[in-house]
Automatic annotation (TrEMBL):
<keyword id="KW-0812">Transmembrane</keyword>
<keyword id="KW-0472">Membrane</keyword>
<keyword id="KW-1133">Transmembrane helix</keyword>
<protein>
    <submittedName>
        <fullName>Uncharacterized protein</fullName>
    </submittedName>
</protein>
<feature type="transmembrane region" description="Helical">
    <location>
        <begin position="59"/>
        <end position="77"/>
    </location>
</feature>
<feature type="transmembrane region" description="Helical">
    <location>
        <begin position="26"/>
        <end position="47"/>
    </location>
</feature>
């Protein structure tokens, strides 16, 4: 029972049970670009605050804290790819779905509470 698909496929679709998809590569591209670009802007901002204005505001501390706290979300999302995140549910084995829901409950909860 756990070896079957986690969901019923649409009509005329044959499930290919796997935990990897070609669409998962877009996560690497987006996560790398977004983290790199926001990190570069953060460094420019901090350089301006520390060396040009020589004044640190409380908002700067929260900007740094926000960037640091966003990194675990990126790591959790990356770890979720190993268990089938980004794969259609009819292509995912039921046991892999259970592992996915166990490994990344914060990521899933955050995604589901938005709707």
């Amino acid at each position: 029972m756990l070896e079957g698909p986690a969901g019923t496929p649409p009509p005329n679709v044959i499930p290919h049970l796997t935990t990897h998809s070609d669409d998962q590569k877009w996560y690497y591209l987006c996560a790398s670009l977004c983290t790199g670009i926001s990190g570069a802007f953060l460094l420019v901002h901090l350089y301006t605050r520390f060396f040009v204005f020589r004044k640190v505001l409380p908002a700067d501390i929260f900007i740094i804290l926000g960037f640091i706290l966003s990194l675990p979300c990126i790591i959790i999302a990356r770890h979720s790819l190993n268990f089938g995140a980004g794969v259609h549910i009819w292509n995912l084995k039921l046991k892999d779905l259970i592992e996915l829901l166990f490994v990344s409950p914060l990521f899933i909860k955050q995604t589901l509470t938005r709707y």
